[in-house]
Amino acid sequence: MAKxxxxxxxxxxxxxxxxxxxxxxxxxxxxSNMLFKDSVTLQYPxxxxxxxxxxxxxxxxxKDPNGxxxxxxxxxxxxxxxxxxxxxxxxxxxxxxxxxxxxxxxxQEFEINMLRCIYCGYCQxxxxxxxxxxxxxxxxxxxxxxxxxxxxxxxxxxGGTLPDSHYKWDKKKKAEEEGNSx
Length: 182
Hints:
This protein has 182 residues and is of the alpha+beta class. The chain has a domain at 59-167: Alpha-Beta Plaits, CATH 3.30.70.3270. Helices cover 29% and strands 13% of the residues. The chain has helices spanning 14-17, 20-35, 76-80, 122-126, 152-159, 168-181, and strands at 59-61, 86-92, 105-113, 132-134, 149-150. The strands form two sheets. It has a three-stranded antiparallel sheet with strand order 2-3-5. The longest helix is centred in the N-terminal third of the chain and has 16 residues, at 20-35.
């Protein structure tokens, strides 16, 4: 059988019973911040804190440097999203866009419900066309739930156009043209 060990607790002194050391320590911290340090308060809408380089912000859709829609409606982001915040309705590519003949479909509707989004970044990681990017935006608000469901137009407005280092679609088109000329 295990032997029970009883530990004697040291009695508290008078200052410890009145919490004076803790109160003095708190007042010291407050006074030193008020009198001797620069202000740590930011005037929020005008001043924003520095964002860490690996910050995962609001997911947005981006266009390529030629202003074309990068999303090909593969729906991988919709399938991988843990809270099911993304909803895509695939549509066809307009026939007048001859520079996208290798693309089979484009999103007719694309919505991200920011009330459900957990900012995990899976959508950006899984996107084969690099159409979704997490922007440094961390302040999104609205007066109703409907305002926090970002549709395709708002996602492109937030994302804009990003530089594309590999011009994936342009290379495919050039390769097809070279293959047809031989």
